[in-house]
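Margin note from the TA: students keep mixing up input and output lines. Inputs are the sequences; the output is the structure of the whole complex. Example:
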Amino acid sequence: MSELFSNLGVSDFVTSDRMLGLVRAVLILVVGILVARLASKAAARGLRRRASAQEAMLVRRLSYYVLLALVVTSALHQLGFNLGVLLGAAGVLTVALGFASQTSVSNLISGLFLIAERSFVVGDLLDVNGRLGFVISIDLLSVKLRTFDNLMMRVPNEEMIKTTVLNLTRFPIRRLDLQVGVAYKEDTERVRKILFGVADRNPICLDEPAPLFIYKGYGDSALELQFSVWAKRENFLVLRNTMQEEIKRAFDEHGIEIPFPHRTLYTGSVTEPFPVRMVNDGA
Amino acid sequence: MDNWWGDYEVATNQTLRWQLGPKTLWITRGDSEWRVAGASGQDRLDERLVIAEPAEEPAGDDDGIDVRRFASRSGNRSVRLGPALPDLPVVVRTTKPFVVPAMEETTLFLSAPLWLRVYLDGREAELVDTPIARPSDTWFGPDTMTGELCYALRTSARLHLEHLPRRPHRAISAVRIQNNAPSALHIEKLKVPVPYLSLFVSDEGYLWTEALTLEREEDSGSTKVRLDDRPTQIVATERIARPRKKMSKGFLLDAFGGLFARKGKKHNE
């Protein structure tokens, strides 16, 4: 049996330098990966107080991959690979890979810029190309949003860099622009007073910045007015509902007409009056 | 004047009703629960005061009545009502823009709205913490991006105490303003950090906060805030409410509105 082994060179191999190298390489890999994982976690934990969640995540991933690369190269070195040659080959390979993975790399770099720019953080409400969503995570390739109807929206980082993104939750207060139309017969000064009265009675409508009244113009069927009021960001939706409801009620109370679209019919060059038929159903 | 705060004993299945200005409160003791119902009126100037009057329990589905139920051991017999100051700073205006020249000082009086707290049988944690008359929100800061959310007071700050209306559901604060800076201080509005103040009862039965001093050192916006131990204008009997927040030493505050006051309402555009 031992002859068989010696013929196959197994015992030589077991005691040879190559075997020792292999054992060392495996040990370096196992211990190295463990250390890399622990070290990156510790780095992220250390940063958590000073940096935002995604920066900590980025540091964790970067440090992990750098340490992993070091571990793998030293393991390869133990196995007797000539790293110089390997790196040369890798250079050629990188060019080929670079062309192949252009999109991913562009997203990756955009991701780094997005994180550095801090235009938004996890939890913010964004408007991306007309779609609203809360940021769940900012990853290396994409930003993930949760829409109001609870769908996950994945936006590639490259697109986030290129398009206009509205952050609805950056500042603590928001303005609500209400478009109000009143009939031409109404006295706008009186309408203005009623609108300000409604804003004054609504406790979530901010006193300051004061509400803004803009006379926008003469519309087809109505005097077009804009009434802008401010509220705490979290109260925005409540303000939108309560204000419109209260304005309608106040207009009804004071007999102010919110007109429907009017249409005047012209029947050609001869403007005879329209025939009107009286209906009396015997009531 | 009768005090509306204090301990009240409630029999099983009895309802007591309080009317504090615009706020109506019903407290009912059930077998193993307490039911607290509240309703708010629209009239901020309402001055009605009804204390612990036996009443019918309101039906919960009535419009505008908010009913909350709290589990409790059947041994609990009494509730305590207590006043508290607002949970945000209040912003008060002066009747006309007011100037404190360099190295001068003045005292302004203001009346802050109160919150109502309901406690069970000597417990520390309150069941309910609700405004008696909800003040309007307002923004206090140099622009619409930086600043602080506050409550706006409808009554303005007065130079003379006798001009200030006294109501059982409001607390009076005396704010001493010292302008130690070389330039005059224009005051249109003033932010008062009421969450850091406590409440005292005067011998007449009105509520006061301790006196506070706002010291303006230089031309910068920030002001040093100093609290006295008690109200200085009255003979205070006892402290009945602790502050909501603890003030750190060397507390600085932007009390006079800085840029926003000067720029006015430009930010709307």
